[in-house]
């Protein structure tokens, strides 16, 4: 593999045509677009898309480009409108994308634009609580794109019942693939994230990695249990707090020989007490879902890390400037509301977060923390970007446990080689 896919502007342009314009991408959250007139505007690379619920209750997506002279008609974010109004000359569009008002309508020799031209529509779907869009009019269905494993697995978590309590975007100094590569392997965990070892399995032989036929992949990490790599007999504080919540006494599990029992004890306790404590989303969980983290890497860039009580989206988007050595990294934390629970620990560190829909926070990487684990991941991104640009870069020499990275690049090659 050569480095051009991480550094080259021409490669990035081709990637836009062959990858971003052809794949399904998450545009926003379904609960923001439940009523007619509610809309979400999202940006991908230099493109911008508006998703809006129409008066007929249909969800539609449109390019954010005025059919008069191309101006963007909506800023990024979510809100409600009766009509979209272009800020330049005041053309107006209804919730179905039709032009409904044009100043000096009689001054168009070709006939009034109203009813004749409108916003350009693209494919749009609502699934698992996410709004998905695809710019390719000939794209396969979202379910076909995701495949059976991803579709079945994600459906079992009822993500549509979650609320987004963290929504950060860091303008980051690396190609988007440096971030997807990072989430396509866990080889780095033992080195870069030693803080995870007390409660997530970091030994690859005790995890499961699957590459899926549709080009996506999955990594399963037994969790809420000290990794076999953990030294010492203690149960870490973070895990002990969770155990006590479920009526388990961490002292009963002191000693390395007892650590292997914690995960099953928690699964049993959660199955028994979950409903009583208001954890409605546990109702149909399989045992592993009570404790484990599973990461779904949906090609190209939708990374969903799913745990017992919520989902993190860890997503790099191509940079609006077109610079292949920059990207926008999104970190969302979406949790299942539990009756009586008003706050949730933040994966971005700092104070607990209120369990309610939050504002978007965008900043330059380095200005703020994205959370300890994400900061650790990103800390390496700039260094890797710089190293990949070296004349001494020799391609990748990867371990078997990095086969999801290997597979990702094979899938990318397939897309790039399509005419
Ligand atoms: S560019 Fe939108 S009204 Fe003129
Ligand atoms: Fe990581």
UniProtKB/TrEMBL annotation:
PROSITE patterns in the record: RIESKE (PS51296)
Q: Which InterPro entries match?
A: Rieske_2Fe-2S (IPR017941), Rieske_2Fe-2S_sf (IPR036922), Ring_hydroxy_dOase_asu_C_dom (IPR015879), Rng_hydr_dOase-A (IPR001663)
User: Pfam family of this protein, just one?
Assistant: Rieske
Task: Recite the UniProt keywords alphabetically.
Answer: 2Fe-2S, Dioxygenase, Iron, Iron-sulfur, Metal-binding, Oxidoreductase
Every copy of the Rieske domain together lies at 24-133
Q: Which cofactor does it need?
A: Fe cation
Superkingdom to which the source organism belongs: Bacteria
Which Gene Ontology molecular-function terms are recorded? 2 iron, 2 sulfur cluster binding; dioxygenase activity; iron ion binding
Q: What is this protein called?
A: Aromatic ring-hydroxylating dioxygenase subunit alpha
């Amino acid at each position: 593999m050569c480095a051009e896919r991480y550094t080259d502007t021409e490669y990035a342009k081709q990637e836009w045509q062959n990858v971003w314009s052809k794949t399904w991408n998450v545009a926003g959250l379904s609960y923001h677009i439940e009523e007619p007139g509610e809309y979400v505007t999202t940006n991908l690379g230099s493109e911008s898309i508006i998703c809006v619920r129409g008066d007929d209750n249909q969800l539609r997506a449109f390019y954010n480009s005025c059919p008069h002279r191309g101006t963007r008609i909506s800023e990024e974010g979510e809100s409600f409108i009766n009509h979209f109004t272009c800020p330049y000359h005041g053309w107006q569009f209804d919730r179905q994308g039709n032009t409904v008002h044009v100043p000096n309508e009689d001054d168009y020799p070709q006939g009034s634009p109203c009813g004749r031209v409108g916003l350009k529509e693209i494919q749009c779907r609502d699934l698992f609580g996410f709004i998905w869009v695809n710019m390719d009019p000939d794209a396969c269905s979202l379910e076909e794109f995701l495949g059976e494993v991803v579709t079945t697995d994600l459906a079992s978590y009822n993500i549509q019942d979650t609320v987004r309590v963290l929504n950060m975007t860091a303008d980051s100094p690396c190609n988007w693939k440096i971030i997807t590569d990072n989430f396509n392997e866990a080889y780095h965990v033992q080195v870069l994230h030693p803080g995870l070892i007390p409660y997530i399995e970091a030994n690859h032989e005790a995890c499961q990695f699957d590459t899926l036929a549709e080009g996506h992949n999955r990594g399963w990490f037994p969790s809420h249990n000290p990794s076999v790599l953990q030294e010492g007999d203690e149960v870490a504080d973070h895990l002990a707090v969770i155990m006590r919540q479920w009526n388990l006494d961490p002292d009963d599990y002191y000693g390395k020989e007892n650590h292997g029992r914690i995960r099953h004890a928690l699964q049993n306790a959660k199955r028994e007490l979950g409903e009583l404590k208001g954890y409605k989303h546990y109702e149909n969980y399989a045992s592993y879902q009570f404790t484990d983290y599973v990461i779904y890497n949906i090609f190209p860039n939708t990374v969903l890390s799913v745990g017992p009580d919520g989902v993190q989206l860890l997503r790099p988007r191509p940079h609006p400037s077109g610079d292949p050595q920059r990207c926008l990294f999104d970190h969302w934390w979406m949790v299942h509301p539990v009756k009586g629970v008003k706050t949730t620990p933040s994966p971005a560190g700092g104070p607990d977060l209120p369990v309610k829909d939050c504002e978007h926070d965008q900043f330059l990487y380095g200005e703020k923390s994205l959370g300890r684990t994400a900061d650790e991941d990103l800390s390496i991104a700039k260094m890797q970007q710089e190293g990949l640009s070296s004349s001494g870069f020799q391609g990748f020499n990867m371990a078997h446990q990095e086969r999801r990275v290997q597979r990702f690049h094979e899938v990318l090659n397939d897309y790039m080689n399509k005419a």
